[in-house]
Specification:
alpha+beta, OB fold (Dihydrolipoamide Acetyltransferase, E2P), globular
Length: about 130
């Protein structure tokens, strides 16, 4: 009887451990507000090409105050971006880009990007919003 209990506990622990990555991913609606669209133009300061989401950071200058704010911009996975024409070298530090997306619910300077215009080319960003450019 004790052996069955130990086996059941080990099996349950293994199941929970294997399911943990499923709970780690978030939904678009949990973090972003579709009623808060954002359009930005700025200079790329950092690119993080990794799973589950690719991020890039952009310094955006406010035209009225002149204040520069760094925005964190979330795109889809590297695989999703590759299917939309991206490579690791499409976006580089120092480039000027324009983007359209959705602002985070908490009002931070973070956005889920729908599309990015790089060197005059508009590319989809494999957004979890489910909208194509």
């Amino acid at each position: 009887m004790r052996a069955k209990l130990v086996t059941a506990v080990v099996a349950a622990t293994a199941l929970v451990a294997l399911a943990a990555p499923v709970f780690a991913h978030h939904s678009f609606a949990a973090e972003f507000d579709v009623a808060k669209p954002v359009t930005l133009t700025g200079v790329v300061t950092k690119v993080e090409w990794m799973n589950p989401h690719t991020y890039f950071y952009v310094d955006v200058k406010d035209s009225a105050s002149g204040k520069v704010t760094n925005w964190a911009c979330e795109m889809g996975s590297p695989n999703g971006l590759t299917r939309q024409g991206w490579t690791r070298n499409t976006l580089n530090v120092g480039m000027i880009v324009a983007l359209a997306g959705t602002r985070a619910k908490v009002g931070s300077t973070r956005a889920n990007v729908r599309n990015v215009t790089v060197d005059g080319n508009k590319l989809g960003a494999a957004s979890s919003e489910g909208v194509t450019p």
